[in-house]
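Page 37, top half.
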Amino acid sequence: MASTQAAKMGKSLNQLKLEEFMMAQVDIQLESDPICSSAGCDQYKQPDGPAPPPMNYFVPNFGMDRDVINTLADEKVASALTGHAWSFKTPESWEKWRNRAKDVDYNFAPELSDDMVDSAASAAIAEAQYGNEGQAYKW
C-alpha cells in the first residue's frame, strides 16, 4: 500500500518513509518543547519602565493662603452684620438639612398586581393558541 502511494506521488518508498519519519520528529519536538524553561518566562517579561516619582520628600508649609484668610475674615463680618452664624455638621443642622427621602425603605422590585399577572397569562395563552405574529408584548 505504501509503495502505491509513493508511486502516485512520484517518490520512492524510502523517500516516503523518510518524510513520515521527519514529520513524526517534528510532532515530537513540538509536543516536548516547552515555552518557558523551569526558571520561568523571562524572555516575554514586561520592561520595568520609568522610575517611580520621588516620595516622602519635604514639603514646606507657608501657612494659609491670603485669599482664604480674607474670606474667613469677610465671613465673620457678614455673620456679625446679619446676625446669622453658620453651623455645619451639628445635630441641629443635620436634622434641618438632611435628605428625608433616604429614610424611606423603597421596594425597587415590587410584585405586579393581579390584573397585570392575569393580562400576561392571557397574552401567553393567546400567543400559544394563535401564534406570535409580532403583536405580543414582552413582560
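Page 37, bottom half:
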Amino acid sequence: MSDSQALPREIAPAIADGLRAKLRGPMLLPDAPGYDESRTLWNAMIDRRPGLIARCLGVGDVVAGVAAAREHGLPLSIKGGGHNIAGLALCDGGLLLDMSLMRGVWVDPARRSAQVQPGCLLGDVDRETQLHGLASVLGFISMTGCAGLTLGGGFGYLSRQYGWTSDTLLSANVVTADGRLVRASADENADLFWGLRGGGGNFGVVTNFEYQLYPVGPQIIAGAAAWPIAQAPEVLDLYRQTIASAPPELTVVAVLRLAPPAPWIAAEYHGKPIVALFYCHSGSLEDGARLAAPLKACGTPVGDIIQPRTYCSQQLLLDGTQPAGRRYYWKSEYLPSVEPELLTGALEHAAKLVSPFSAVVIFPIDGALNRLPAEHSAVGNRDARFVLNLTSSWANAADDAANIDWTRTAWQDLRRFSTGGTYLNFLNADDGDDRTRDALGASHARLVEIKTKWDPENLFRVNKNIAPATRIVSGRFPRRCP
C-alpha cells in the first residue's frame, strides 16, 4: 500500500492572500521553507501535499482557517501531533491547520486539572503535571498528540484505574463548522461533548482540552523485563494470572517481538525472539515491588529494569520502538479476555514476523472503563478488557507488501477472539466505513445525529468520517452530504 503522492492543488492567490491577512501564525505555500517539515507525519507511508498550510498560533487563526475552508470549498485537515497511523492530519490539495505550535499546558493543582492546547504531545503534559505529583490518563508514547488520542478514546498505563482518556475530559473549547467558538462540557453543549469523547475529529476543531488529573508518582515501580521466546508459555501464563488479580494501579503490557538492541537486554539476544512485559504500578512503592516480585522471579530473564523510577521515565520507555519516519501498518481488536488459545496463536504469528521492528502487543484496559454505562460517551466499547495490536513497522517501501500481508494474515486469524469492536485510533488509512462502525459500535447512530447538527455540510471529513444524515438543501432536494 502506498499513499497518495498527488501534486498540491493550486489555490488561487487571492484566497491565500486573504487568509494570510487574517493569520497571526505563518502561512506556507508548497514552495515555502518549512512546508515539507509541517506536512511530514510520523508514519512515512503517508505522503500527502496540502495546497496551503496555516501554522496556527491561537484560536483566531483557527477561526480564520475554518472560515476560509468553508467559504472556498477547500478540503480541510487538522494536525495536532501528527502521530495517527492513518495520517488523518493531512489532506491532498486543501488547507492544513497545523496546530503543532500551540503547546501550552496550564496546571491547576488545587482543582487537579490541566488546560492543554491542541498541539501538545503527551510528554508536554507529563512534564508539567508531574511537577505537582499529578498525571493525566494518556498513552504509551510521549510523542503522541493529545488531541487525536483524546478524541479517539485514548488509553494508557492509568486506564485500568481511571478509564479512557476521554473519560477524564472535563471540557473542550471547539471551533465549529460555522465558525463559532463554543465550550463543550457536561453542562454546556452536552451533545457535542458526548460526541467529542470518542467520535474523532468529526465535529469541530478543539482549541483547548481540560483534563482531570490524578495523584501519580513522581516515583513509581515500573520498567520492563524480557525472556527468550522459549520461556514465553510460562511467562504468558503468569501474565494472565497477574492481570486477572491485579489491582487497578497495576498495568502490564505483553509484547512478542525480536529483541531490539536496547542496552537493558543482553547483547547475545539482540535480534532474537523474546517475550517482554512492560510493567507500571502507580500506587505505593511497597505494593509495586511486591507485585513485581513473581514476574521478576519467573524463568531466566535476559533483561530486567523493573525498579523504582519516575513516572515520566516510564512514559518515555517505549518511544524508541515507534520512531518517526518508519513505515507503519497496524490491525487491532478489542478482546473480552486473554485466552490460552489466543496466546498460542499470537506466538505462532510472532514466529513469522518479517521485520525486526514489528510486534504482537496485548494491552490490558479492564477496570474503570467497564464500570461506566455503555452510553456514557461516544467511545463506547465498555465490554473491552484488552486491546490486541498487530504492529508492523519497517524502513523501506520495497517491503510494504510482505509486512502488510503478515499483519492482515495474523489479524484474520486472531480476530475470532474479538468483542467485535476495534480501537478508532489504530485504524489504517485503508480501513473503510465498516471498520469505523466496528470502532464506534452502538454509538454510531447517535453520532450521525450530532454530526448532522454541528457539521451538516461535512466540512470536517478528513478523518474516520461520520457522514451527516440526508437533509433538505434549499428547502427542496434531499441529498447526502459528501
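Margin note: Residues 1-8, 472-482 have pLDDT under 50 and may be disordered.
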